Amino acid sequence: MILVKSLLSWLLLMVAVTSYAQTTDAAAADVESVATAMQRLLQNATGHVLQEAELEAARRALFSEDLAARQRFLTQAKADLQEQQQLAERLKQRFDRNEKSLVEQEEALRLRVGNLGEMFGVVRQVASDLQTILSDSLTKVELPERRADLAKLSESRQLPDLAELEALWFTLQQEMTLNGQVSSFRTSVIDQQGQLVEQSVTRIGVFNAITPNGYLAFDQELGLLRELGRQPSSASMLTNFLQGQGDVRPLALDPSRGALLNLTLDTPDWRERVQQGGTVGYIIIGLAVIGLLIALWRLITLLDIQRKVNRQQSQPETPCDDNPLGRVLLSYQALPARVDHDVLEAKMDEAVLRELPGLERGQAIIKLFAGIAPLLGLLGTVTGMIATFQAITNFGTGDPKLMAAGISQALITTVLGLVAAIPLLLAYTWVASHSKRLIQLLDEQSAGILATSMERALKVETTERKGA
Questions:
Q1: Backbone Cα Rg of the chain
Q2: b/e per residue, 433-463, with b = 16+ CB within 10 A?
Q3: Contact call for residues 299 and 431 (beta carbons, < 8 A)
Q4: Is the same domain home to 123 and 214?
Q5: Which residue, of 232, 265, 298, is where some domain finishes?
Q6: Residue 191 shares a structural domain with residue 83
Q7: What is the mean pLDDT of residues 294-313?
């Protein structure tokens, strides 16, 4: 193609030169030089055509070599494909043979195992259940390591051997034996400050762990025993149980393995109950204490007065001024021998009235406190309900604990008011009855003095009439 183009170019050039030679008469003289140039141009075109031919031949040879290489690659690829297909066929046949062999082996295993398969399933279940029991058992503190590897037995997909079965049986038997024992051992205990201390602990089966200081709680997450923040009232029996003699010793036991003990400790004692009453509760308690002290003081005073009055009754001829009856008798003896009946009655009433304030002292304040205590309890109830409704307004009713403080104050203050009012009323009644008894005695003695005076006056008058 390149050769054809070169020839055409040369012919066109020759035509142009010929036309130019014919049309130009003035260039006739240069014909020879033009012919020389044309000859040289022809030679160059011929050399260029030969060069192009060589390049074309080289390219054709290169293309032929590349085609042969690709042909060889295609042939090799086809051979590899055939080899891989044959390998896949062999692997498929081997897989089918292995799958058939696996089915046969599984069937043989099933026939050999027979009923043992169900038994091994039971072993796995028992190992899993025992692992759960031991994780929250008190015996874990005394024996943290067991012979059987329960985690392996419960999760294994293989059949356990004889040694593993024997270890499982031994662990079960050991746990059952420990459940019925009372044993003492030393272990680390978390005290109330959060420190680990070495203590001597007595384990009561799987129910409770105790020390001379009180009951211990089992922390399942840490696997350790810890001291309780507050001991129940039955903790006083522990010392006698640990140090006592004899086969039978009393002990308060929690059969729920600590659940009831924790509930007991969550129940507030009387100090915490009083604190729930708040300021109003403390005021009620203060009034009750003051009122009862006044009542006790007045009761002691009236009993002392009663003792002195009884002694004065046994000695009416020698009155003393250390008791009301003696002072009334002294007032009578201070009167003239002959006195008008009305004057004597007025003097006796005056003497008795003079003793009344001393005998009735303190009764009004006791009665007042007995009446104020329930009113203060009602006040605490109202303020507690206000706090409860305020908590409901702020936080809603989703969490009952947010309302517990106000409800506790409302109920505790009511209880405290009633608890204070009842003994105050009883004390007031007791003191008032003693004072009334003494006042009645003074009235009786005053009436007796009047009767004696009138009788004496009547005898004197009768004697005078007879003498006249």
A1: 62
A2: ebbeebbebbeebbeebbeebeeeeeeeeee
A3: yes
A4: no
A5: 265
A6: no
A7: 85
At residue 320, φ and ψ (nearest 5 deg) are -120, 155
Compute the distance between CA of residue 90 and CA of residue 82 in angstroms, rounded to an integer: 12
Confidence of residue 421 (pLDDT cuts 50, 70, 90): very high
Q: What confidence score (pLDDT) does residue 289 get?
A: 93
H-only helix segments in 250-340: 259-266, 270-276, 278-314, 324-333
User: What is the residue-averaged pLDDT of the chain?
Assistant: 78
Give the residue, 143 or 267, on which the prediction is more confident.
143
Give me the pLDDT at residue 422, please: 92
Strand partners, 12: none
Taking a C-beta distance cutoff of 8 angstroms, is the pair 376, 287 a contact? yes
Q: Which helix (H) or strand (E) holds 5?
A: helix 2-23
Flag whether 54 is in a domain.
yes
Closest CA to 109 of 101, 125, 166: 101
Q: Same domain, yes or no, for 89 and 11?
A: yes
Helical (H) or strand (E) element with 371: helix 363-395
Number of domains in the chain: 4
Q: Shortest CA distance to 434 belongs to which of 303, 334, 326?
A: 303
Among the ranges given (232-241, 301-310, 434-443), the one the predictor scored with the smallest mean pLDDT: 232-241
pTM score: 0.51
Residues 191 and 230 grouped into a single domain: yes
CA of residue 398 relative to chain centroid, distance: 17
**21 domain-assigned:** no
Neighbours of 331 (CB within 10 A): 19
pLDDT of residue 293 exceeding 90: yes
Beta-carbon contacts of 341 under 8 Å, excluding residues fewer than 6 positions away, are 450, 453, 454, 457
Exposed/middle/buried for 255, CB within 10 Å: 0-12, 13-18, 19+?
A: exposed
> Whose CA is closest to 294, among 439, 438, 428?
428
User: Are residues 463 and 363 both part of a single domain?
Assistant: yes
What pLDDT is attached to residue 21?
A: 47
Domain containing 344 equals: 276-467
Q: Tell me the pLDDT band of 401, cut-offs 50, 70 and 90.
A: low
More reliable by pLDDT, 264 or 61: 61
Q: Which of 138-147, 158-167, 262-271, 276-285 has the lowest mean pLDDT?
A: 262-271
Q: What is the pLDDT of residue 4?
A: 47
Instruction: Read off φ and ψ for residue 116, nearest 5 degrees.
Output: -65, -25
Same domain for 460 and 375? yes
Tell me the C-alpha distance between 19 and 449, whole Å: 192
Does 319 share its domain with 456? yes
Instruction: Give CA–CA dist 247/182, Å, rounded.
Output: 13
| 438/377 same-domain check | yes
Q: Amino acid identity of 212?
A: P
